[in-house]
Each structure stands twice: as C-alpha cells, then as structure tokens.
Fold:
Amino acid sequence: MSKINWFKYSSPQAFYPLAGKMIPWFTALAVAFTLPGLYVGFFVAPPDYQQGESYRIMFIHVPAAWMSMFIYVVMAGYAGMGLVLNSRLSSMMASALAPTGAMFTFLALWTGSLWGKPMWGAWWVWDARLTSELILLFLYIGFMSLQAAIDEPRRAARASAVLALVGVVNIPIIYFSVQWWNTLHQGASITVTKAPTMAASMFTSMILLTFAFWMYTIAVALMRVRCEILERERHTEWVAQAVGGSK
Amino acid sequence: MSNWSSLSEFLAMGGYALFVWGSYGVTALCMVVEVVLLLRRKRTLLQRLSRTNRVTAEVSKSNEVQT
Structure:
C-alpha cells in the first residue's frame, strides 16, 4: 500500500489547486440536492393540517438553523487547530467559513420570523431559542470584526480563535434551549435517537435541502479560502507563477 | 403532484405567499449574492496580483539594464 502524505495538503500552496478542482463538484452536488429538495417540498409534501402552506418555510428554516450551528463548530475546530498547531491553512479555513455561517444564522432568524408572524402572531419574541441564535449571529460578527481589526494575520487568527472557542459554549445552549427553558419555540421533530415525528415527504425535503446547504457551504468556503490564500501568500514565488503576468 | 391545481394557487401559498416567498426569496438572494461577491473578489484579486507581477518584472528588468 502506498502511503499518502495527507500533510501535503495542509500547505496553502498545495491546497490552492486542489480546492479549485473541488469547487465544481460541490457546486454540482449543491444543485443536485436543491432541485429534488424543492420539488418534494412544494409538490410532494402535503399541506400541514394545522399550519396550512406556511410550514413549507420549515424546509429551509430547519436546514439553515442546523447549518448555522454546524458551521460554527467546524469553524471553531479549524480556529482551534490553527491555535494549537499554528497551521496557517486551518486559520484561513476558519475565516473562510465565518461569513457563510453568519449568512445561515441570519437566514434562520429571517425565515423563523416570517413563519412566526402568521403562526405565533409575532415577528420576534425574546425566547431562549431565538435569543441564543441571535447571540450566535453576534459571535460570527465578532469573529469577523476581530480579524478585520488586527493587521497582523497571525495575531488576528490567534485572537479570533480564542473568541470562537469560548463561543462554542453557546451551541449546546441553542440546541437544548427548548428543553431547558419553557420556550415558545417548539422542540425538535428530528432527533438522532427517535424516528422523526413528521410525514416522510416533509422529512425528505428537509434532509435534501440540508445536504444542498452543506454542499453549497463547502463550495463557497473553498472559493473564499482560495482568495484568502492568494491575499496572504501574495509575495511568494508560487503565487506569482499561479497568477501570471510576469512575462 | 396534486398539491396545486393552478399556477396562481401555487403562488398564493394558501394565503401565506408573503411569508413563504419572503423566506425562499431572501434565502436564494443571499446565496446568489454571496457567490457573485466571491467571483468578483477573485477576479479583482487576480487582476491586481498579475499587474503587480508585471510592474515588478519591468522594474527588475530596467534595473538590470542600468547596472
């Protein structure tokens, strides 16, 4: 068995072309999950007997909320790896994920608000689930602002990694908020331990769109990390060769 | 497939059009805008870097001629 040197791809120089090759695949996967997800969500899943058609918002609300938490954990993981191993690429991956994570957090809040108005009669309530999700948005914004505020990339990566790691404590708070407190937000209909308490077609649409968001996230994070790599390594010989124009 | 009998019924979303389409529309918009911004960032970055490259190459060439 030939040995594969996995550490090879931890150098920005080796990862840059690899990321470029992966982007079209993840884009294609994102589209391949979105189309059937939307089809099942709008044409196969029947209207809810209590909520009518408004519950179709859930097909993107739940995936967006899941992604907002998942991306945060992955981002904090990369930031922590960068902090401990001092590996540049991990810190760059953390920065590349932050804007997309913030976007999904915003979308979870936005779609939740648009569902809450007709169903709860309020755009917003200061309920534990909603408030902790809003704090997640502030954590993402804080992470990005802190990086933008410090000029030296290594110091910026270290400082923001500490912030990201401390903020991880908010993730279980979001997830368990509906159990720990008496919230207006309902409990989970999909858990790892029990069968989902919803129609199979509703579950299918939610899962397909979750995968779609996941693949989308990988594609845009790779696009962004390529820009980060070029910016931070712009004085190196390999970037000069990669971008051309020297002849 | 029998959820909607006409396009207008589909668009009306059982009276929840504003909420359903407001959710899907803004989600789609955010995702498209993010991709467009990233493509633009990459293009301007590549242009700037290759211009810097060219200038550096010309400067070093003219230095060689002088010395």
Remarks:
- DSSP finds two helices and no strands in chain B.
- Residues 17-66 of chain B form the longest helix (50 residues).
- The two ends of chain B are 79 Å apart (CA to CA).
